[in-house]
Each structure stands twice: as C-alpha cells, then as structure tokens.
Amino acid sequence: MWAISDMLAATSVLQQRATDIRSQKVNWQSYFQSQMISQEDHQFIVAFDVPDSSKREHLLHNDRMQCAQTFLNLLGHVSKDQTLQYILVLIDDMLQEDRTRVEIFHEYATKKKESVWGPFLNLLNRQDGFITNMTSRIIAKIACWSHTAMERSDLHFYLTWLKDQLKMQYDDLAANLAKYDAVRGPNGDQPTEIYTEVSFSVDEQHPPTEITNNEYIQSVARCLQMMLRIDEYRFAFVSVDGISTLLSVLSGRVNFQVQYQLVFCLWVLTFNPLLAEKMNKFNVIPILADILSDSVKEKVTRIILAVFRNLIEKPEDAQVAKEHCIAMVQCKVLKQLNILEQRKFDDEDVAGDIEFLTDRLQSSVQDLSSFDEYATEVKSGRLEWSPVHKSKFWRENAQRLNEKNYELLRILIHLLEQSKDPLVLSVASYDIGEYVRHYPRGKHVIEQLGGKQLVMQLLAHEDPNVRYEALLAVQKLMVHNWEYLGKQLEKEHSDNKGAPKGGVAVSGKA
C-alpha cells in the first residue's frame, strides 16, 4: 500500500541533519581524560564508533549489557548538544541495522530493575529540535520493534508529546503561511522582504500550500505512522485526543507529504473495528472528502480511498457502515469517484477501491430515505438548504428527532452554540423552528435542551439571514396553539384577500 520512497521522504529533514552529524566525529579521549565518562564506557564507545559494521556486530554479540549501559550513561551525563546529537545518531543507526537490537535496552533495564524509557523521555524536554526528534524516532523503534509493549504512563506521555509537537509544528507553519500571504499584498505580488523574516524560501512556481518550513513535522508524523500500527497504542492515542489533532492539521494548509502521512495514521486506526465505527464522530469523512476533491497526488488519493473502504468494511455494525456510506454520498464522494474512474493509476489497488466504493455508495443511494439523508447531514455539521429541509419532511419526520435521547436535536443545538458559519446557523435555526411547529411537545423539549436561549441570542447576529431565521424560529417557539393560529391566518387571508397584516408570521421552506 505504501512505497519505501514515501517513508524516506517522510524523514528527509532529520536524515539530512543526521548525515551531517555523522561526519562530525567526537573526541572520546577528551571526555575520558576530563573524567566525564568511565573507562568502561570509553573503551566500549571507541570500539563501537567505527565504520566497519562487522566489528560492531561482534562487539554487540559479546557485550550487549555494556552497550546499553554505555549509551544510557552517555545520554545521562553528556550535556553538549553536538555530542548528544552524535550519540543519538549512533543509537539510531545501530537499531536500523538490526531491529532485534532494541531488546538490548530492555534486557539491561530488566536486569537493573529500571525503566527503559526514562533516559529517552527526559531528552524530549531538550530545546534542540534534532535531539528531541531523533530521540522520538528511537523511542518509536524501541516501542514498535520490541516484544515488550510500552507501559501505560510512559506511552501516554510520549503520545501526548507527539500530538503536541504535531500541533505546534503545524501552528508555526500556519503562522509563516499567514505572514507569507500578508507580505504578498492584495494583488498577490511576490514578497520582497520575506526572505529575512521567515524561515523558508519562496519559489514563484509553487503556491503557498506547497511551502514547508524547515521543521520536523514529517518526522513527528512518521513516528505516529509507526506507533499506530500497534492496536494497543491506537486506543492510547485516541485517549489523548489524537484523532482530533490529526484532523485539525489536515483541515489546514499542509503539503501533500504531510497529508499522506496523517491520512496514513487514520488508515491504520481504521483497521480496528471499534475505532472504524467511531471515526466519523470526529468528522473524518467530510474532511477527507475535501482533500480528495483537491488532491493531485496519487498517493494521497489512494490512501484516502483506503480509509473510506475501511470505514465501510471494518465496522461490525451494519448500520454504522450504512451511515458512513450515506455520509460519503452527502460529501460528494460518489461524484469524485466518477471522475477518478477516468484516470489511470499506477497502483492496482486504487482501481479496486474505486470500484468497491462506487458499488457500495450507489447501493446506499438506492436505499436512502429522506430521514437517513437528514440525519447524516446533521451529524456532519455541514448544514445547507438541501431538499430535506422542507415542510413535507418535517410533517413526516419531526417526531423522529426524539430518537436516541434526542441525538439529532442535541447536535443542532450544539451547532447553534459552536458554529461560526452563517449558513449552518440559519439552517439549524429553521430546523428547530420546524421541529417545534410539527411536534406538539417540541417547545418544551427545546427549552429543556437549552435551545430556546441560543436561538434568541442569534437575533443579534451580524448576518441578516441568521437574524431572519432566528426570528422565525423564535416566533414558532412563542406560539402556543398552532391549530388556532392556522385558523386565524386563514380568516385574515380571506378577509383581506391578501397577505396577513397582523399576527405572527410563520415561514416554511416549501
């Protein structure tokens, strides 16, 4: 599903720095003479730090415990950044040569009754970006390649660090992109002073979405790609709000390589049936559908299609799979699949995923009821004036909003409170008004759920459409007897032969 080149590209910044650091040999003799390292550690590191891999292999075979002891002692006692960088590169190269060497550190920790993670996790607090990210890479390898899983508290600390780094690196990038846009000026002119102000260069041939700063966001994502292949680590990542962070970054302006890596993380998460069932509660389908429609890179397209396939295949609850299909239809994925069918892909899996998804989504469209469509739209949070927002729909389905402890009503009210989109606020206000209009106890339910106060607050909204729909909803909430009101309106209409001049105006999108 993924190529080796994808993984190499994912750590290119870190690897480039590592190549430079390897050439900067350390004078171990000076550390020994100044009594900063012991004679045993000096003897081992001098014998180990040689180009000949066979000599290193022989040394590790004969003295595994000294290897772990020396490296951990060096990490704990050396303070100079440049030397620490070199030590970490040595450790990483050692593990890369042979994955089973991660057990060296576990065996030593078990013998000494110490934590294998402490010395490494402490380094994540350093200020140097290379040190923290190379340490993170080593932690991921030990955690994923060992027979012993990472302990809960250490795992929680590490995954939280990765999540925070991902968000921080993205926020830095977003700030730089905003500065880039600002200095371009209103006409999109190329900046003149940006080269000295921000830490990336500008190429006239590349739009802002392709700009990356010289940070380690790809390395952080690569560690997550490794960790989330292990089921136990997946649930721990979810518990630190990891999915929301992935989707928050994906919703912004990141280049295709970061898009691929983060969608890869979502893909491996969806191999767990329980997580596949819960995934769209985080709005993953709308966000990935947007990326899919804009993507020009095959590897981004294929990994998104693979996520969509898992969201249909992996859930054990058929109703959830159906809801995912409907959500994809709602987000115009079927239309995008029709476009993709016309393209030729190098990866055969892509054609198979397109065929599978097209078949399942077309089947779901045939079975789609108006209430299914409405429920999916509400759950997506992307309300619009779609056909389900009609008086006929509300006459037939208003009472169904009471199902599952008023689930859809609660979402509508949450949107009124949290959304900044005038269209969403307008449609949500209208729907609440129609629910009250067509369900006898609707006014009481909305008041109990806190919806009435939120609608009334929107009467002062800056957008005139929001104010208008909020006013209509408030009017509906104030009416006590719809049957009586209807007769009064009919009477006034017949008396005046025109539009009613008094009473309460009632609107419906017919």
Any overview of this molecule?
By secondary structure, the protein is mostly helical. The chain is about 70% helix and about 0% strand. It has helices at about 5-10, 10-20, 30-35, 40-50, 55-60, 65-75, 80-95, 100-110, 120-125, 130-145, 150-185, 195, 215-225, 230-240, 240-250, 255-270, 275-280, 285-295, 300-315, 320-330, 335-340, 350-365, 370-380, 390-395, 405-420, 420-440, 440-450, 450-455, 465-480, 480-495. The protein is elongated.
Structure keywords:
single chain; 510 residues; 0% strand; disordered C terminus
Fold topology:
Elements: H1 4-10, H2 12-22, H3 28-33, H4 39-48, H5 53-62, H6 64-77, H7 81-97, H8 102-112, H9 118-123, H10 129-145, H11 152-184, H12 194-197, H13 217-227, H14 231-239, H15 242-250, H16 256-269, H17 273-278, H18 284-294, H19 298-313, H20 318-330, H21 333-340, H22 348-366, H23 370-380, H24 391-397, H25 403-418, H26 422-438, H27 442-448, H28 451-457, H29 464-478, H30 482-496
Domain ATPase V1 complex subunit H C-terminal: 368-482
Protein name: ATPase V1 complex subunit H C-terminal domain-containing protein
Keywords: Hydrogen ion transport, Ion transport, Transport
